[in-house]
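Q: Can someone sanity-check these two? First one:
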Amino acid sequence: MTAVGFRWVLALTLMAALPASVRTATQAAPTQTPTFRTGVTLVTTDVIARDAQGRFVPDLTKDSFAVLEDGVPQTLESFALVLGGRTYNTIQAPPPAAPEGIVLPTTPRRQVGESGRVILIFIDDLHFEAEYSPHVRRLVTTIANTLLHDGDMVAMVSSGNSGIEIGPTYDRKLVEAAASKIRGSALTPEELFKLLETSQGPGDLRQRAQVAFQTAYNLLSSLDQVQNRRKAVLYISPGYNFDPFAESRKGTDRVMGGRFADPTRFVIDQENPYFRLPTIRADGDLYAYMRELTLSANRVNATVFTIDPRGLAGIVDAGQYLDQSEWRTHLQKTQSSLRYLAEETGGVAVVNDNDFQAALKRIDAETSDYYVLGYYSTNADSARRVRALDIKVNRPDVSVASRRAYSLKTPGTPPSPKKK
């Protein structure tokens, strides 16, 4: 099944979990032509409030929060506290004024299972090496046994040759059973040095990244129909760097004297601008990919929790023929990419850490204890795609974590890159 096909399966399954009244209204849509008014969509965002000791603060009220969109204060229309997965103190938003002649569905009754979380597990096996496969298997098994609870809907997809496509399902045993299929297939530094470099950079690094990002993007897009449930993405990857070990690849490796990175073996003019362009644009291109992915997550109010399976990073194995300074630079770039994906969506990056058990407990808490704020946007510019969010609380020594922006979806569907 392709990533696009899996997205449709996920969307249909999630739609099936919706109340019957909502499904009936959705199915009846082709028989009429409803008219929607700009600015009537309720914007909801999950917010985590912590005190100075990092503990969740459960006694805030609607008046404790201030929400600004593009610097303009917004009026909160709905407010709820979710504590331990249960919803309290819910203030429902009044329905927006409808254009004359539109038929609104009746208020749906709450269904069993609606309060559970939606957890997507993304295994980026295209970017971790085979030696980390056992670590990722143990991590996924731990996730299935400790993080997933009854009532949680879970789906798991891999980006590469592991071929994992599970869910959506309420059976966490399926996730645990699939852990044995995980196989990392990233290129080692030694392999990178021996590959031909093209205008797309060393090897097929950019193609691999495009496949990974497209898979995650389609997975997130399938959450459009899910409302009033905590949506979390466990993004298991060592991160990204479009120009790794540049000096070693150019043959100036200070350890091995360029033995495995002599550019003359391919007779390529390294000063040719067509071959230098990927290096010059590497960081900018990577940022563009990651930004679009975080916008997709924020659009559906999903929080990304990135997990680096490499754990606590030390010096590199001498058998990789790498200079230690280049290895540290590579670590810094890849870990920064994971921090960006998490922080821009209000999540946490688990990097440079071997205590995955404690990290999963924190993720469990942050997806079980939170506030849900809702408002109708008063943004005067309906064509503005990305809207910045700034959420503040008026209690001293309390900080909040939430998504920093949300975006409107652009028309059309991006093409899916072909896997090699």
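And here is the second, same format, sequence then tokens:
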Amino acid sequence: MGTHHKGSRREKQALNAYVALMRAAESVTSRTTGSMTDAGLTLSQFGVLEAIYHLGPLCQRALAEKILKSTGNIVVVVDNLERQGLVVRRRDRKDRRYVIVHLTGKGRGLVGEVFPKVLKSIVREMAAIGGEEQVALYKLCRKLGKKKDISNSKDSDKPVNNLRRAQ
């Protein structure tokens, strides 16, 4: 459907791409979070547990960066996980200013049970596009996510009509 905004071609193109990206992300997220919800976890809580499960104990700031939340929000998420007995906080021995978040046995068991279910639903959802398209999508999303300021970019006005250009 396209935007009803009466702006320039550049504005309409950007708005259409943004809306499509956000709708797709929300739609896929809603279909992949069932296992998390069934386990009594929010998306943020699962993100924290999954990050520690795969990367090992992390400080709260690193967790915030990993799951794209503010440090203030991470404190609340970790508080709730700690209350459920899924994580524990420990002061770093070398630098006591850092609080490191560790999985408990219960947390490791829960994420070990839930992660494969979530992964299965992600694989099922991503099967809507082929392998090469998944690689192209990954690269485009990384490019978009890491971009700081494209206002000075010479290519910022050019449409990307061929996904292979982005590879």
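A (reply): Looked at the second one. The longest strand covers residues 87-91. The beta strands are 58-59, 87-91, 99-103.
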